[in-house]
Protein backbone atom coordinates (compact mmCIF):
# COMPACT_ATOMS: atom_id res chain seq x y z
CA UNK A 1 0.00 0.00 0.00
CA UNK A 2 1.33 3.44 -0.89
CA UNK A 3 1.29 6.22 1.65
CA UNK A 4 -1.05 9.06 0.66
CA UNK A 5 -0.36 12.17 2.68
CA UNK A 6 -3.59 13.70 3.94
CA UNK A 7 -2.02 17.16 3.86
CA UNK A 8 -1.21 17.28 0.15
CA UNK A 9 -1.34 21.08 -0.03
CA UNK A 10 1.15 21.38 2.82
CA UNK A 11 3.51 18.92 1.14
CA UNK A 12 3.34 20.83 -2.14
CA UNK A 13 4.08 24.10 -0.30
CA UNK A 14 7.09 22.48 1.37
CA UNK A 15 8.40 21.25 -1.97
CA UNK A 16 7.99 24.70 -3.58
CA UNK A 17 9.73 26.36 -0.64
CA UNK A 18 12.54 23.80 -0.76
CA UNK A 19 13.16 24.54 -4.45
CA UNK A 20 13.09 28.31 -3.81
CA UNK A 21 15.48 27.93 -0.88
CA UNK A 22 17.91 25.87 -2.99
CA UNK A 23 17.86 28.48 -5.75
CA UNK A 24 18.41 31.25 -3.22
CA UNK A 25 21.26 29.26 -1.65
CA UNK A 26 23.02 28.96 -5.01
CA UNK A 27 23.00 32.74 -5.33
CA UNK A 28 23.97 33.53 -1.72
CA UNK A 29 26.24 30.53 -1.17
CA UNK A 30 24.60 30.01 2.21
CA UNK A 31 21.51 28.09 3.18
CA UNK A 32 20.28 26.97 6.53
CA UNK A 33 16.52 26.77 6.25
CA UNK A 34 14.12 24.10 5.00
CA UNK A 35 10.41 23.27 5.23
CA UNK A 36 10.94 19.52 5.10
CA UNK A 37 11.48 17.97 8.51
CA UNK A 38 14.41 15.57 8.51
CA UNK A 39 14.11 14.92 12.24
CA UNK A 40 11.68 15.58 15.02
CA UNK A 41 12.06 15.97 18.75
CA UNK A 42 9.11 14.91 20.85
CA UNK A 43 8.58 14.72 24.58
CA UNK A 44 7.10 12.73 27.37
CA UNK A 45 5.53 13.26 30.76
CA UNK A 46 6.33 10.87 33.58
CA UNK A 47 4.71 11.08 37.00
CA UNK A 48 4.44 8.60 39.85
CA UNK A 49 1.15 7.36 38.35
CA UNK A 50 1.53 7.59 34.55
CA UNK A 51 3.81 7.77 31.55
CA UNK A 52 2.70 9.64 28.42
CA UNK A 53 4.70 9.87 25.21
CA UNK A 54 4.16 12.47 22.48
CA UNK A 55 4.61 10.54 19.21
CA UNK A 56 6.31 11.92 16.12
CA UNK A 57 3.70 13.55 13.87
CA UNK A 58 5.75 15.09 11.06
CA UNK A 59 5.92 13.95 7.46
CA UNK A 60 4.52 10.43 6.97
CA UNK A 61 3.72 10.13 10.69
CA UNK A 62 0.96 12.75 10.48
CA UNK A 63 -1.57 9.97 11.04
CA UNK A 64 -0.49 9.85 14.70
CA UNK A 65 -3.02 12.62 15.29
CA UNK A 66 -5.74 9.98 14.82
CA UNK A 67 -4.52 7.32 17.24
CA UNK A 68 -3.84 7.00 20.93
CA UNK A 69 -0.81 8.82 22.17
CA UNK A 70 1.19 6.15 24.02
CA UNK A 71 0.11 6.29 27.64
CA UNK A 72 0.32 3.96 30.62
CA UNK A 73 -1.68 4.45 33.79
CA UNK A 74 0.68 2.69 36.23
CA UNK A 75 -2.14 2.10 38.74
CA UNK A 76 -4.01 0.13 36.06
CA UNK A 77 -0.98 -1.84 34.85
CA UNK A 78 -2.54 -5.24 35.55
CA UNK A 79 -4.39 -7.76 33.45
CA UNK A 80 -7.71 -6.17 32.47
CA UNK A 81 -6.62 -2.69 33.60
CA UNK A 82 -8.35 0.16 31.74
CA UNK A 83 -7.99 3.91 31.20
CA UNK A 84 -8.98 6.45 28.58
CA UNK A 85 -8.08 9.74 26.98
CA UNK A 86 -9.58 12.23 24.57
CA UNK A 87 -7.93 14.53 22.03
CA UNK A 88 -9.55 17.56 20.39
CA UNK A 89 -8.15 18.26 16.92
CA UNK A 90 -8.64 21.90 15.91
CA UNK A 91 -8.58 23.53 12.49
CA UNK A 92 -5.26 24.81 11.24
CA UNK A 93 -4.11 22.53 8.44
CA UNK A 94 -3.98 23.59 4.79
CA UNK A 95 -7.60 22.76 4.03
CA UNK A 96 -8.67 23.07 7.69
CA UNK A 97 -10.69 19.90 7.32
CA UNK A 98 -8.64 16.67 7.20
CA UNK A 99 -8.44 15.62 10.84
CA UNK A 100 -10.69 18.06 12.71
CA UNK A 101 -12.86 16.40 15.33
CA UNK A 102 -12.24 14.38 18.46
CA UNK A 103 -10.45 11.12 19.11
CA UNK A 104 -11.51 9.03 22.10
CA UNK A 105 -9.09 6.35 23.26
CA UNK A 106 -9.97 3.32 25.37
CA UNK A 107 -6.87 1.52 26.64
CA UNK A 108 -6.91 -2.03 28.01
CA UNK A 109 -4.10 -4.24 29.33
CA UNK A 110 -4.52 -7.49 27.40
CA UNK A 111 -1.61 -9.54 28.74
CA UNK A 112 2.10 -9.90 29.35
CA UNK A 113 4.82 -11.48 27.30
CA UNK A 114 8.30 -11.35 25.84
CA UNK A 115 9.61 -8.88 23.27
CA UNK A 116 13.05 -7.82 22.06
CA UNK A 117 15.20 -4.72 21.88
CA UNK A 118 17.93 -5.40 19.34
CA UNK A 119 19.20 -8.87 20.25
CA UNK A 120 18.11 -8.67 23.90
CA UNK A 121 15.05 -10.52 25.09
CA UNK A 122 12.82 -8.48 27.40
CA UNK A 123 10.60 -10.50 29.72
CA UNK A 124 7.42 -9.46 31.51
CA UNK A 125 6.41 -6.78 29.01
CA UNK A 126 2.88 -5.46 29.29
CA UNK A 127 0.69 -5.69 26.19
CA UNK A 128 -1.78 -2.83 25.87
CA UNK A 129 -4.41 -2.25 23.22
CA UNK A 130 -6.40 0.88 22.53
CA UNK A 131 -9.49 1.35 20.41
CA UNK A 132 -9.39 4.89 19.05
CA UNK A 133 -12.56 6.40 17.59
CA UNK A 134 -12.36 9.60 15.52
CA UNK A 135 -15.64 11.49 15.42
CA UNK A 136 -15.59 11.69 11.60
CA UNK A 137 -13.05 9.20 10.27
CA UNK A 138 -13.80 6.09 12.33
CA UNK A 139 -11.80 3.46 14.17
CA UNK A 140 -8.06 3.04 14.61
CA UNK A 141 -6.46 0.31 16.69
CA UNK A 142 -3.29 0.97 18.69
CA UNK A 143 -1.11 -1.73 20.27
CA UNK A 144 1.73 -1.08 22.71
CA UNK A 145 4.37 -3.27 24.34
CA UNK A 146 5.63 -1.64 27.52
CA UNK A 147 8.56 -2.60 29.76
CA UNK A 148 8.03 -1.09 33.21
CA UNK A 149 11.54 -1.90 34.46
CA UNK A 150 13.96 -0.33 31.98
CA UNK A 151 12.94 0.39 28.37
CA UNK A 152 9.44 1.89 28.52
CA UNK A 153 7.68 1.59 25.16
CA UNK A 154 9.38 -1.23 23.25
CA UNK A 155 6.88 -1.44 20.38
CA UNK A 156 3.99 0.66 19.12
CA UNK A 157 1.69 -0.44 16.29
CA UNK A 158 -1.13 1.53 14.73
CA UNK A 159 -3.68 0.43 12.17
CA UNK A 160 -5.69 3.37 10.89
CA UNK A 161 -9.28 3.63 9.66
CA UNK A 162 -8.10 3.48 6.02
CA UNK A 163 -5.80 0.43 6.31
CA UNK A 164 -2.51 2.32 6.74
CA UNK A 165 -0.22 0.74 9.36
CA UNK A 166 2.67 2.34 11.22
CA UNK A 167 4.94 0.21 13.41
CA UNK A 168 7.69 1.50 15.72
CA UNK A 169 10.18 -0.91 17.32
CA UNK A 170 12.89 0.14 19.75
CA UNK A 171 16.18 -1.00 18.22
CA UNK A 172 18.72 0.22 20.74
CA UNK A 173 19.30 2.49 23.71
CA UNK A 174 22.27 4.84 23.58
CA UNK A 175 23.44 6.30 26.87
CA UNK A 176 24.77 9.86 26.73
CA UNK A 177 27.46 10.75 29.17
Taken from the alpha-carbon principal axes, the silhouette is: globular
Mean pLDDT equals 84
Largest sheet: 6 strands, antiparallel
Number of self-contained structural domains: 2
Number of strands: 9
Terminal-residue CA separation: 41 Å
SSE order: HEEEEEEEEE
Beta-strand proportion: 35-45%
- Radius of gyration equals 19 Å
Low-pLDDT ranges: 29-35
Counting helices, strands and paired strands, the structural category is mainly beta
Total of DSSP H or I helical runs spanning 4+ residues: 1
Percent range of helical residues: 10-25%
Strands of the widest sheet, in order across it, are 4-5-6-7-8-9
Overview of this structure, please?
The protein folds into two domains: 1-36; 42-169. The chain is globular, with a radius of gyration of 19 Å. Mean pLDDT is 84; it is low at 29-35. The protein is mainly β and 177 residues long. Strands 4-5-6-7-8-9 form a six-stranded antiparallel beta sheet, with no helix packed on it. Strands 1-2-3 form a three-stranded antiparallel beta sheet, with no helix packed on it. The longest helix has 21 residues, at 8-28. Helix content is 12%, strand content 41%.
Amino acid sequence: MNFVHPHKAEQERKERNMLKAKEKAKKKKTWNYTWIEESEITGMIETDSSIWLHPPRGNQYVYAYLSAYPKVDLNELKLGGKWGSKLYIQKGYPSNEEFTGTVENDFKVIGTGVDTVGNSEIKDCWKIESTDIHSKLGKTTSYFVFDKVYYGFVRMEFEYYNGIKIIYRLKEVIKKE
